[in-house]
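User: Please fill in residues for this 288-position structure.
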């Protein structure tokens, strides 16, 4: 593999689809048909130089396997494959980082996997167990990245953390990722409270990249307070001109299990496609 690629490793909200304890139409169908299942939102970047995982979800084991499959094969059946060299975390909601525990001696006994995030995210991990112990014992290294500053994490791949407004129960910020490679740019923004609350204009940010993977948690505003996310319908209105230009592919990810666009046969999913938008699909690949 001479060029880097981005791989979509998961597209559901933190609990995945099917969702724990849920027998709604979509969860019930997903329990019967594995093809309807969706793993929690995550991305990978692979190149000849290494691999990078974005967020460590409850589906960590399956997602690092998918990431390994996307790499040049370096292990045979009967052997083990290594974890990604680097994990970048977007925020401290449990569904986005708790999978890190599988790097300790109870599962992979990893050696110095680099875990990166904002200063607040890394301080949170260093102050709490088992993450502090995992660093002390050498399974991971915890390193903060500056906000709004491009950093080269793989040769030719530069990453910038962009702070976004999202509920912060433990004083830890949430970041979106801007990835720039030799061939394309990607904006990964799976969680935000609202577009109006951001100090950046989402239309300008999305219009400046080749691929925008955006928060598509709900189709309509969620009926229970305290879980703010911009509904897909609102986002499509706001980004209609960008989608219509044909320059940026806009795909919705981080889908709640109740979101009708999870099922491609629904009127809502057909509306997304008809308006020039997309629903992110797992194991899709994009050149970087």
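Assistant: Residues filled in for all 288 positions:
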């Amino acid at each position: 593999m001479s060029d880097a690629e981005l791989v979509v490793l998961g597209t559901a909200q933190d609990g995945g689809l099917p969702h724990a304890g849920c027998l709604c139409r979509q969860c019930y169908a997903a329990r019967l048909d594995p093809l309807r299942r969706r793993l929690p939102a995550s991305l990978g970047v692979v190149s000849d130089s290494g691999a990078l995982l974005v967020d460590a979800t409850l589906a960590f084991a399956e997602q690092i396997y998918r990431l390994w499959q996307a790499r040049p094969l370096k292990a045979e059946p009967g052997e083990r494959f290594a974890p990604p060299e680097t994990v970048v975390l977007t925020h401290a909601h449990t569904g986005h980082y708790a999978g890190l525990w599988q790097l300790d001696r109870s599962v992979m006994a990893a050696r110095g996997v680099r875990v990166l995030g904002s200063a607040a995210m890394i301080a949170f991990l260093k102050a709490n167990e088992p993450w502090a112990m995992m660093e002390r014992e050498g399974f991971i290294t915890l390193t903060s990245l500056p906000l709004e500053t491009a950093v080269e994490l793989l040769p030719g791949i530069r990453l910038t953390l962009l702070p976004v407004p999202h509920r912060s129960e433990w004083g830890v910020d949430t970041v979106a990722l801007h990835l720039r490679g030799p061939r394309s740019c990607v904006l990964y923004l799976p969680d935000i409270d609202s577009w109006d609350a951001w100090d950046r204009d989402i239309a300008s940010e999305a219009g400046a990249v080749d691929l925008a993977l955006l928060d598509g948690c709900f189709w309509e505003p969620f009926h229970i307070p305290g879980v703010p996310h911009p509904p897909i319908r609102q986002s499509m209105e706001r980004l209609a001109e960008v989608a219509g230009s044909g320059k940026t592919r806009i795909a919705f990810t981080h889908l709640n299990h109740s979101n009708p666009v999870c099922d491609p046969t629904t009127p809502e999913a057909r509306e997304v496609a008809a308006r020039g938008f997309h629903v992110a699909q797992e194991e899709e690949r994009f050149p970087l």
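For context: DSSP finds eight helices and 14 strands in the chain.
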